[in-house]
Amino acid sequence: MAGISRENIPPSPAYFPTSADSPLHPPTDLYTKLKTISNDALLKQQDFVIPPRSGKAWHVPAGSLFRLSTPQGPQVGDLNIWNACDPREKFWAARTRQLQSSHVKEGDRLWSCLPFMRPLCGVVEDGCEIKDVGREEKRDARGGVTKWGGRCHDLLGTRCDPYGTFFLLLLLLLLLLLAFLSFFSPTK
Q1: What residues does each domain of the chain span?
Q2: Is the separation of the CB atoms in 99 and 17 below 8 Å?
Q3: Per mean pLDDT, which range of 49-53, 77-81, 98-102, 142-146 is the poorest?
Q4: 31: closest CA among 104, 124, 120?
Q5: pLDDT tens for residues 64-111?
Q6: What are the two backbone dihedrals, phi and then psi, of residue 146, each rounded to the nearest 5 degrees?
Q7: Is 78 within 8 Å of 154 (Cβ atoms)?
């Protein structure tokens, strides 16, 4: 056991498929078909550049493909997804990380929050990789990859999770209440 260290253990999902028809199995046949559609056969509906330090929302109809790229080099970005017909259903990064792993890849799906708990979209093709010299395991024409397959779409930004915000606010209110009570408590 001396040669085994924590950094040599790959990240893995917290849950594994328990049956052949488990929703955790991606629709690989569908993804393969979508991936092999030529660009000429696709009808582009929108094309835009999002400037640094800004954001943009757009509608992607159900059953459509969307492509994200970084034409001006490496960037950091957040992706938030909602069901257009019910905004209560939204992307849940923490649960996706549990179901798929911290580094999503081709074939993985991005899952929605409770009580819906279903895939909102899937990764059909992955053309992005990190270009972070020092953390990479290998390098090819597109850039570097960590030894666990980490690339630009890692699900590590869950610090903005609404539950975390709720509990931080609750803690702040409790601290304010304690301060208020100690200030106005009668002295003996």
Answers
A1: 14-33+75-127+136-178
A2: no
A3: 142-146
A4: 124
A5: 998 887 777 666 678 889 999 999 999 998 888 888 877 777 788 899
A6: -70, 165
A7: no
Which residue pairs from 69-73 have beta carbons closer than 8 angstroms and sit at least 24 positions apart in sequence? 69/127, 69/128, 70/128, 70/152
Taking CA atoms, 179 is separated from 171, 173, 183, 184, in Å, by 12, 10, 6, 9
Tokens of 70: 């970084």
- CB atoms near residue 149 (< 10 Å): 17
Closest listed residue to residue 111, CA positions, set 10, 14, 11 = 14
Which residue type occupies 29?
D
113 vs 120: CA distance, rounded Å: 10
Q: Going by C-beta distance under 8 Å and a sequence separation of 6 or more, which residues neighbour residue 1?
A: none
CA torsion angle 164 53 145 112 (round to 10):
40
SS3 label, residue 31: helix
Burial of 100 (0-12, 13-18, 19+ CB in 10 A): buried
